[in-house]
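Input record (one chain):
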Amino acid sequence: MIRLSVNIDHVATLRQVRKARDPDPVAAAVLAELGGACGITVHIRGDRRHIQERDLYLLRETVRGKLNVEAALTPDAVKVIQAVRPDLVTLVPERPDEPTTEGGLDLAARAAEVAEYAGLYREAEIPVSLFINPDLEAVKAAGKLGVKTVELNTLAFGAAATDEAREAEIKRVTEAARAAARLKIEVHMGHDINYQNAGFIGEIGEIGEASIGHAIVARATLVGMERAVREMLAALNE
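The corresponding structure, as predicted from the sequence alone:
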């Protein structure tokens, strides 16, 4: 059974549009866990476009499952995350002009930098995951860096417009997941997973957890967070 970590960034996005108090991402986190989520994922971006530092402290006190914080390779992120002490930090690439994280870490070009930041979190006894594209070289590089968890970027899978393209991406993700499992690396996945395509990728046995945000938050605006989470869990594990 694939576990579900719910990304609540876009609850905070809606709040920040009006610089208001609501909707409260902490309340959304409580409802997501009541719906069956194993934990909560948030991204503390450099521009603070959605999740704020105050949210992180409140989530740390509220989340009963695993709190996963996504962060870029920056001193600012290290300072915040070392203070909050989440259960997991997922290192991601970040560009100011992107609507959301668009690709995995380029470990071929940034291995030394990733190793440096991963080391800072390890010194603080905060487990590290890497957000990587689903290719074998990225998995091998992650293994050399000694991380215990990777999150495979499923953006290309989510964007597949034909059955052939989708099957090709499923094969690619499957091969990467199996390679990671052989290296004793825990495998997560995330990006562009929705209620229509979750079942296809949920069949990959090596994947233990999915991190899903936009589709769930969008559904929650219509049916409520608890129901949206239950429906996604059913879609992942149908």
